[in-house]
Amino acid sequence: MTSLCTSPCEDLSAWLGFRLSRAIAVRVGGALALLVALAVLRPGTALAVGETITDVRVLDNQRTTEDTIRSIAGVKIGDVMEIDTLEKVREHLNTAGLFSDVNVWWEAHGEGVRVNIAVKDKFPWAPVPTASWSANNKSIGLLFVHGNLFGRGKQMLLGGRLAQIDSGAALAYRDPALFGSWGYWQLQGFVQRQVIPEYDTFSGQLVPALAARESTFASYGFEATLCIAWLRRVRTQVGWQLQKIGTPTSVIPQASGPDQATVPVFQGGVVGMGKANLSFDFRAREFAVMTGTALSGGVDIASSSFGGDFQYWRAGVGFEHGSKLFRSHNFIYGAGMTFGHNLPFWNENTAGGNNLRGYLSQQFRGDSQISAKIEYHFPLFSISSLDFRALVFYDGSAVWFRDVPTAVTVMDPNGVSYYQRETPDQRTYLQDTKAGFSLSRDVHNDVGGGLRFFLRSVAVPLVGFDAGYGIEAKQWRFFLLVGA
User: Fold this and answer.
1) Domain with 359 in it
2) 341 and 368 in contact (C-beta within 8 Å)?
């Protein structure tokens, strides 16, 4: 448990006497009232408000360098102590995810005050096994994560997983403080094998036994990103992604033998994409509780100017807010919207699974999406450093296509017809796919509950289980996640 400490009690009376004497001598009425009010509200901090910080001392760090801790804390010699300075330092250090325990207090030092920062480093690296289970997407994987390379908070991830829908491997490096500045950069390479289902949701089949079409394809590529964190909380980010996509093998799962083969969902090629993002992140995390607000917006543009064969764009905005209630309860809500034009099949908006827990993974898809969620988390009990928590939730999502070809232009050898788009990827659509928004057809909701198991020294839950009831489908879906 982290705590905010003040100066020792034995020094309190001496300081209080000195402050009161000076206040009475200078301003008898108003200054005295203000001083007493501050002392009642925040007795320790109030005594230091307005004092110059003459020293910042770091204690007990074993793996993280002092310079890194000072940079994260955001306090330096010469700053003026404010009433919330110590709270902000504590919040910055807890949010960094490098420390299992943070203790911050002040003491008199020379002509001002010293800020003391005592931290307990988390173990910086670990192999993390991962697994998930849902009705149409089961996976198992292993991640190797190092969160504090060189003792300077540099980060590396190496991992892979086998899954029904999205198998792959990735290697990523991130420098969150480039040359000690507010800029950072990251580079990642990845390879994927995806088996993506399409469901006939436009004819009202909300409880499908099998997908109407299933497409298997491979891809590989890299992405480079440069970001500046203005005043830590405001981030501008630009990136470039280059990815090679193979032409998929598409089948009709209901058929058997040669009759399974059908028209490919798209033609492969190279995707060159420029990415830009602006975010305002005022969230803070203390163990399992998230507080504050995050706002973000971004745009992805794929074109030949970025080295690709395809032309499309995608833009979206979103927000999330968390409030702490009753000391350890957490109320979280958020919403977002994303729109695109000529989106390729693998980059379309989807709902179902982790973002719509009462339905199958990727059950609904389109080029336009509006979504919302509400969650209430609360503690059950703790055993040593293991916290058991529960939640209730609501998810809502509207997903639809604004643009779909209106004529059947391609047919497979078995006589199954598809719409085909006149774009380089030649995206083909199931014949029942319809354009335009329909309130009764395209809006889906769920409610449910779940469990989370947290180890206090780890920033993510060790195990998560959710049970979601699809309101329109009138059916339960279950999701289990182990690891990150």
Assistant:
1) 125-482
2) no
Distances (CA, A) of 479 to 361, 395, 439, 476, 482: 10, 14, 27, 10, 10
121, 138, 164: which is the final residue of a domain?
121
CB atoms within 10 A of CB 61: 18
CB proximity list for 94: less than 8 A, separation 6 or greater: 2, 102, 284, 285, 286
Model-level pTM? Answer: 0.75
86 and 204: one domain?
A: no
Are 365 and 198 in contact by the 8 Å Cβ rule? The answer is yes
Which CATH number do you get for residue 134?
Answer: 2.40.160.50
- pLDDT for 218-254, tens place per residue? 999 999 999 998 877 899 999 999 999 999 999 999 8
Which CATH number is 10's domain given?
Answer: 3.10.20.310
Q: Are strands 154-163 and 183-198 parallel, antiparallel or unpaired?
A: unpaired
As a whole number of angstroms, the distance between CA 385 and CA 62 comes to 21
Instruction: Tell me the two tokens of residue 209.
Output: 């036994």
Task: Confirm if 100 and 457 have CB atoms less than 8 A apart.
Answer: yes
**Closest C-alpha among 454, 408, 469 to residue 433:** 408
Tokens matching residue 220: 């590989």
pLDDT tens per residue across span 257-311: 888 999 999 999 999 999 999 999 999 888 789 999 999 999 999 999 999 999 9
**Domains identified in the chain, total number:** 2
Q: Which of 89, 121, 153 is the last residue of a domain?
A: 121
Q: Which two tokens stand for residue 129?
A: 């096994």
pLDDT, residue 62, reads 77
